[in-house]
Amino acid sequence: MNQLELIGLVFVIVFFGLMLTLAILSRTRPVRQFREIQAFTRLRHAVGLAVEAGNRLHLSIGRGNLIGPQSAVAFVGLTVLDRIARSTMVSDRPPVVTSGEGAISVLSQDSLRGASRAIGAEFDPLRGRLTGLTPFSYVAGTLPVIYDEDVGANLFIGSFGSELALMNEAGERAGSLTLAGTDNLSGQAVLYATAEEPLIGEETYASGAYLGAGAMHIASLRAQDISRWVIISLILLGALLKLIGVL
Amino acid sequence: MGEIFCPMCGKSNPAESEVCQFCQARLVPLVFSPAESEPPEAIPEEMPSSIDAAPTGESDWLLGLRSDEPIPSEESLADVEAGGLEDGNLPSDETHISADDVPDWLARLPGESPQEAEAEPLSDWLKEETGETEQPPSKPVEVSDWLSHPLPDEGQVESSESESELAPGEFPSWLEAIRPVKDEPQTVSARGTPERIESAGPLAGLSGVLPAEPDHVRPRKSPTYPLELRVSANQRIHADLLQGLIESEGRAQPLPQRRGISSQHVLRWTIACVLWGALIWSVITGKHEAPLPAYTEETAEVNRLISQLPGEARVLLAFDYEPGLSAEMDAAATAVVDHLMLRGAYLTLVSTSPTGPILAERFIMKTQSSHHYTSGVNYVNLGYIPGGAMGLLSFVENPQRTLPYTLDTVAAWESEAHAGLPALQGVQHLNDFELLMVIVDDPDLARAWVEQVQPQLNEPDTLTSLVMVTSAQVEPVMRPYFEANPRQVHGFVFGLRGGAAYAQLTGRGELPRVYWGPYGFGLVVAALLILIGGLVLSSVSLLARPPQVKGEANQ
Amino acid sequence: MKATFYVAIAMAIGLIVLLGYFLHLDLLANLRVVLLEWAVILSAVALLVGTANLFYVHWRKFTTTQPNGFYSAVLIISFVITLGVVGWFGPTHAYSMWIFNNIQVPIEGSLMALLTVLLAFAGVGLFRRKPNLMSIIFIGTAVLILFATGPLFGINLPGISELRAWIAQVPAVAGARGILLGVALGTIATGLRVLMGADRPYGG
User: How much is the ipTM here?
Assistant: First the structure.
């Protein structure tokens, strides 16, 4: 094991320990509230409105595969799907999920099936779809869902590139709320300019904690906050040492 | 049939009733029997605490007037006088008094007239409730007939009906004795307030006497309030809104028609026409030829590495971009791949994208047709590596096992059974290639290549270099890999600008030259559109915003 | 019971792959290679499953006469033709290349061109929708890079190329690094949650 691998392993173990510790502590001590993210506030309203107004929620989980770095943001999208599916399956128009990767589409159907089973509703496998295998074909297949299926709110949480602008624009033209978050830098750049409620950087990864997905989500978010400050301190310290000639 | 008006509530009762059927007040005064009364021996200084022990020598009428409750003290009597009798002090109904002994003062007790009730001012708390600071002038209200006539003299009614029973009362001598003279001045109570002096009846002239009919039980007309509701302007607006909402309930509302052409549509079309018009005009007329840009260090490194390749070098070429960005990527990579082919390199094509292998074939046919490269001879297309980064890792660790065949299902690698294709002869591992070139448009994919490939390339005695031809959007992410020490990527060509610079270096590559002029013109037009359009739109929206009404702002 | 079994499998395999990456033990390395190969195969199979799902969705849309079912019919027909041609003649045959060169590439290129217009439109309206300092910086930087990247009608403004290079190499790289660090932390957290079984996007 070389030096870099050792540092990586230590970091992973420390992070894991931090998450566990924070999760255990949160049971005994009250958890400090996180800062408000407007996107999640509007998402909660949109979910309630979708059930009452008979609109549909559309969740798109992107095109990141499950065996690459984009799998993490795809899992976040699946967590969001699980949270909102249980709330909106009872409505006249259950949510529809689109994705640009085969394994993600299978998992999205699985999540919808579980939510349906939990509330005793009938499961329609067509609610979870693969709409295209390339970025633009994925967008081309998703646009009809936004325009034609009476969507009240669009949630784009996954790995998207700059093609995300086309979906945001479609949502705006259809008069539905668009909330988007991606791990891709190009995607985030177009998000800022086109989405109503963009999630920039790691705000996407905070979705589970803000939607009440469990204590471990909150603990992991707090661990991320702590780790971020540690990394910032190390970077500043390293830059300073480099500046004064020590490093 | 005659009727009696109750002195307490003012309601009409049958004449023969002794008690009001509404408020249970006595209609017939108590009758005092003169034979039973005895002249008092003396006025006791202290009133007895209980009437159960009747003082000796007291008149029967007085006994009869007493209730079963303890007789209140002087102070409480004064309080009661001020506030009126409480119910507990009312005489018992069982006490019988002969009709002859009804004193005149009792018979003459008047009821309060409606006019007096109307004239009485409102209490402060009532004024607050009604929101009025002044008593509004009461409207002349229609008064019932029974109320418009003054209450009949009860003494007259009672005397007429019970004339046979009642006799004019005679004051006992002791009462006569304590009655003050009329001219005596008004006394003042211990509180300093002028005391009420009884003006009629046997107790005429006495002060501090409990009124026979306390103020609070006198029938009076309830104060009238103006019937007109005062509504403020804001309340009127809210009421109208509520009324509108209720009226519209149940009525099907027509859905708002979506305007076919809105200002947003017009703006989009305008931007599209300006951009596309500028580019098409530039391409057709060819008037915007511009000098190619100067090369940068990372581009020069690519040129140096390719120039130093031996003849018939084995080069791994990854086509990892999407068809949508093929215009930019083809223009960026043309001059570079052309340089490779000029050096006579054998190319092995792979891709982690499903459309990559086809794009590679298209690239070779469209942009490098002059070199007459033949599949299976000069280059081999191994096809698609499934599994993303994991598939890439698998290919890096064992390329023969991951992609054993070409796109045309021909065994590609050298083995005991097969000689292997020329492009892969002598190649067993990744670091057997002289150069790895990745043509990629996505920053995450570019990083995945670097992260998976670098461990292999870092092994000792490895001379394989890694270079990348990327889209312009990848530059901020990948530049640190070039600037790192040691370098993880040995050279870059970033976007059309890099491709044009490379064409400037090699003096070859038609595609970037053709695109460079219109590309630059399009960039300038886009920049001007954003700048001017943004300023105009922002100014228009600022000017069109209605000024805030102060009242609304305060609300 | 089922859920516990799935979680146990996920945790075990995740741990083996993770430890196999850091610890260079033969057993772990061999296991890791096998598991990764299985993952690659499953990923390819999932691609086929997703394609079948795509076909089925549009078949249902067409046969149940839902709105815009005509476009679903076009997709089904195109799917069948392409599958037939490429499957019969091979992916590098002239017919297969014709479909790719004359249908897929132009369509995707057109969508990319449409994206250009949309981004220009979004840039024009950005300050109106979000009137704050960040929007001004965003638009200003975009305009500067656009001016400095192209030839600018042959005019060589002094310092503009250097400014563009500085923006691309310093603040842009720094911002990208910062965002990537945050994304990496989020990725680690998500991965560990799945490893611990706290996040179960599988098994319903």
Answer: 0.88
